Amino acid sequence: MFDSSLITYAVSLHFSQKVNDIVISTLQAIADKTGNRFMIENKIPPHITIGAFHAAREEEAKLLQLVEDFAQGHKAGTVQFSEIGDFNGKVLFLKPEKNLFLSEINKELHTLLLPKFEKAENGYYLPDIWFPHTTLATRLNQNQFSAAKEIAKKITLPLEAAIEELAVYQCSPFLELKKFGLSR
Asked: In this predicted structure, what is the pLDDT of residue 3?
């Protein structure tokens, strides 16, 4: 059973500035057209979440140190976004191909952190069921979804993205805790 005193932390991959600019301009266009400003108002940067974990506040420093050590041992990589996808017409996202880089970094992160921290988000980020994605809009109603999808279709695909950083976030409320560069 989930202990409500635990905090949910997410570990995410971040892109080069070129791809960030494409995603951010799409987020802004969707927000302007639909009025759904969740991603903008919460200052959620373009990312791919590779893990979500529950930990007590007093374990935060340990989690950050483990993720920093993990980042130092991993090289930057690339992903290729191949299509626009959605979850039940409520979340619109860019879907990357699940390549070796993504699969390995997700699996290795869980191998390191699961013995020490609880899985979060119903285990959706566990290696066997993880569906990598970059959210463009969330909490959409049917009209917003249709308008957002038309805007997202303007992104030229396939789109290759360099993965240069790994970051740790506190979820609810969303707060960036620390970013770590991946080696080149």
From this structure: 63
